[in-house]
Structures are given as C-alpha cells and as structure tokens.
Amino acid sequence: MLASHADRERAVDVLRAGFTEGRLDKDEFDRRVSRVYAARTVGELALVVADLPQGPAPHPGPVAAVPQVFLATPRPAQNGRAVGSAVCGLLCLLTAGLTGIPAVVLGHTARAEIRRTGEDGDALALTGLVLGWLSVGGWALFWLLLIAVDVLD
Fold it and tell me: Which of 10, 69, 72, 96 is the most buried (most CB within 10 A)?
C-alpha cells in the first residue's frame, strides 16, 4: 500500500520519540528521517521504525462516528454456476446447440443454490435456462421433422 503524508508523519513521530529517549543518535535519526520521507510504501516505513519500542503506528480503523446508514453495504456474491449457465446459453448460437444441455443443467443447479444461499445471479441462470431449453427444443424438433420426412418417403 502506498504511504500517505500522515503515515510518514507518524513514522517521524516514532523516530522523534526514539531520539528523545536516547535510543538513536543524531546521525541515525537524520538518516532514518530522510528514509521515511523517501519511502513510497507503508512497508518501507515499517522497516525504518521496526526496531523502536513504539514500532510502526497502526492505521486508524473506520471512524465510529459514521452512522451505519452511510457505510457501504456488502453485495452478495455472484453465483458461478449462474454465470456458467448464461455463457453456455449464449454459446449455443455459436456451437450449433452443443452447449444447450450444460446450460440447462447449470441453470437449474444455480437457481437451487441461489434460493438456498441468497447469492446474486438469478437472472443469469434464467437466461441460460431459456437459451438452453430453446436450443434443446429446437434440435429435438429438427430431428423429429427429419425423421418424419424420412418415414414419409
């Protein structure tokens, strides 16, 4: 994580405390302060002050004064089988219906999982189901017509 100006100032405060307690001499203090201001990441700052008693200053957590209403709410995860069902359903057009059955199977299992776990992706599962069933039905109708024409001849 990139270091902020506040992170650098906290590290310099730790160095100042070490210097005033006699843990660092003036040359060591000056070298470390220059390393702090040259540091780009929080990890580099931690290395500069790691041997001092206060160590690296922790990052402040979320502010407790912020009401829960204003904090971001986590979104439910997207169901992977629903995504797979939609992809297989869309690929039915490119694979001449070869992915229709996997789209149907994945769609049904995804919808069952979504009802059980509360994940997102019901629309994707339904899309895969519709496209899969259209492909399977279309191919079944094609083969039935082909057999009917062959029987009538």
Answer: 10
Amino acid identity, residue 49? V
Q: Please give the Cα distance from 106 to 112 (Å, whole number).
A: 10
Could you give the angle at which helices 80-91 and 100-117 cross, rounded to 10 degrees?
160
Closest Cα partner for 82 from 62, 48, 53, 110?
A: 110
Stated pTM of the model:
0.52
Least confident among 6-15, 53-62, 98-107, 108-117:
53-62
Look up residue 62 and give its two tokens: 């979320």
62 φψ region: left (φ > 0), alpha (ψ -120 to 50), beta (else): beta
What contacts 31, CB < 8 A, 6 or more positions away? none
**Phi, psi for residue 105 in degrees, rounded to 5:** -65, -50
Strand partners, 2: 41
Residues 98 and 127: their CA atoms lie apart, in Å, by 16
- The pLDDT assigned to 100 comes to 94
* Cα(138)–Cα(144) distance, integer angstroms: 10
Rounded to whole angstroms, the Cα distance separating 132 from 127 reads 8
